[in-house]
Amino acid sequence: GIVSVAALVRRGQRVAWVDPDFAQVGRLGQRYQRVPGNTKAGKLLEGFRSLPALNFEASQALRRAAGQRTVSDFSDEETCELSFCMHALSDGAEALLANHAVQGLEGWVSSLAGAHGSEWRARVDRVVAVGTDVDDAVDVQARQVLLCTGGIPRGPPQPQPQPLLQGGHEEIRAVEHDDVVAPDRLAALLARSEALRRLRWGVVGGSHSGLLAAMNLVAEGVESVSV
From residue 208, how far is each of 37, 50, 87, 144 by CA, in Å? Predict the structure, then answer.
């Protein structure tokens, strides 16, 4: 969403931007800051620098002046923790909300109506207009609508199928995706129950998330991990 708004501003468009919490940067800021990234820093820098409205270089300079390491400090071939991307995107969101071409509306779109070739009308509930004290629902009209709602990890179907529940001698427990891909969340989960370290863990899937889950479990010293 942040990158899309910046790209539209670069093209000279005016944008009504709706989000429930601009400061959080979605699930990235809420849950994934400690997760290792899988995109080389050079590619990230190329993308950030291509969008002037993000005010990337200036915000990175301010962070470095405050003694913080930034995504700009990594070599082009290195990868970095997602917190560095989150900070750059958070700074970019702040710059966009201050841009005269962007109307920031903190809230949720409860309805969207329109047809091809006509204007769309969006109902935005629980709005706090950024920079004002207004707290109300509003209608927003636009020629084009971009849906950048992100994604949520899928867990096992509920109720869980019988084979998953049986698992041989004892019931299989499904653990939330976010609790194993983020090292800090996994450490907190295992700290609440040391018995979890002695169990056999199974990781289903070989994607970036699957590899992170296996790596984090091994790093935490669980007795057995099957992928």
Answer: 9, 26, 22, 33
Q: Phi/psi of residue 107, each to 5°? A: 170, -160
Distance CA 198, CA 185 (A): 18
- Backbone angles phi and psi of 219, in degrees to 5: -60, -30
92 with 48: CB under 8 angstroms? yes
DSSP string, 98-139: TSTTEEEEEEEEEEEE--TTS-EEEEEEEEEETTS--EEEEE
Q: pLDDT, tens digit, for every residue of 151-196?
A: 778 776 666 555 544 445 556 778 888 899 999 999 999 998 888 8
Edge-to-edge strands, sheet with 135-142: 15-19, 102-113, 120-129, 135-142
Angle separating helix axes 41-49 and 82-97, nearest 10 degrees: 0
| DSSP state letter for 36 | B
Q: What is the DSSP letter of 160?
A: P
More confident residue, 2 or 200: 2
